[in-house]
């Protein structure tokens, strides 16, 4: 017979852990996200929704925030990363407030289980627009 109280304690601990993770990610000054092992985006933090102005909740449709000239490279790099476990990409993301685009460095790392299998992805977008603008010739 299974001890139901242990099950309830573990379930409660996991729920609290998840709530802390979400609070942590929402407190980050940069845009952040999580993804499934297969690459589906599961969660965007508050900074993402504030910048893109996409209604909070669904994570589908994020690719339409990527500049059209960058979207193919983003998808290609992401698909390769699902095999290699390494993702770094510079791309432009649309500001939902005014429609302008800014450069971001998107980076992600996989979290692996004891067997080395990817169980989750964590990613961030770091604003590099000023650096990219400084590099442009006059």
From TrEMBL:
What EC number(s) are associated with this protein in UniProt?
Answer: 2.7.13.3
Domain spans labelled PAC? 87-138
Q: Which SUPFAM superfamilies match?
A: PYP-like sensor domain (PAS domain)
CDD domains attached to this UniProt entry: PAS
Keywords from UniProt, A to Z, are:
Kinase, Phosphoprotein, Transferase
Catalyzes what?
ATP + protein L-histidine = ADP + protein N-phospho-L-histidine
Which InterPro entries does its entry note?
A: PAC, PAS, PAS-assoc_C, PAS-like_dom_sf, PAS_fold_3, Sensor_kinase/Photoreceptor
Q: Which NCBIfam families match?
A: sensory_box (TIGR00229)
Protein name, as recorded: histidine kinase
């Amino acid at each position: 017979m299974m001890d139901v109280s242990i099950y309830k304690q573990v379930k409660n601990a996991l729920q609290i852990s998840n709530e802390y993770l979400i609070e942590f990610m929402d407190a980050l000054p940069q845009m952040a996200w999580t993804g499934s092992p297969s690459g589906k985006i599961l969660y965007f933090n508050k900074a993402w929704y504030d910048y893109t102005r996409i209604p909070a909740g669904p994570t589908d449709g994020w690719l339409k925030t990527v500049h059209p000239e960058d979207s193919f490279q983003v998808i290609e790099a992401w698909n390769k990363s699902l095999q290699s476990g390494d993702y770094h990409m510079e791309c432009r993301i649309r500001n939902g407030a005014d429609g302008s685009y800014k450069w971001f460095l998107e980076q992600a790392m996989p979290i692996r289980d004891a067997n080395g299998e990817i169980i989750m992805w964590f990613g961030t977008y770091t604003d590099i627009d000023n650096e990219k603008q400084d590099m442009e010739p006059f």
